[in-house]
Here is the input.
Amino acid sequence: MLTPYLIVFKLLVNRDGSSSWKEHFQLPWYLIAFVLITVFISFVSILENIVNQIELAGKYILTIAMVAIGLKLRFSTLLNSGKKGLLFGLIIFAIQIVLVGLLLLL
Here is the structure.
C-alpha cells in the first residue's frame, strides 16, 4: 500500500502545478526496489533460514538507524523548542513504558 499512497500523495501535492502525469509515477529508488523485491518474493520460494537471516539483518539495520536519529538529538534543542513539546514527549515515553510493562506481565 506504500506505493499507491505515495503516488496519490504526489498527485495531491502537485495538483496546482503543471506537471505531467508521468511525474506522479516517478518513485524514489528505494521504493522501486521495495516493489521489485515484493514481486520477486511472491513468485520465488526462499528457504526459511535465509528469510530469518534477512529479517534479523533488517532489525539490526533499523536499530542502527534509530540510534543514528537519537544521536543527532540534543536535549538543549528540546528544551529550547518548548516545554509543551518536551512534556508531550515525556508523557508518550511514559505511556510506552507502561504498555511494555503490561505486555510483559501478560
Notes: The chain has two domains: 2-73, 82-106. The radius of gyration is 21 Å. Helices lie at 2-13, 21-24, 29-43, 48-72, 75-81, 83-105. Residues 2-73 form one domain.
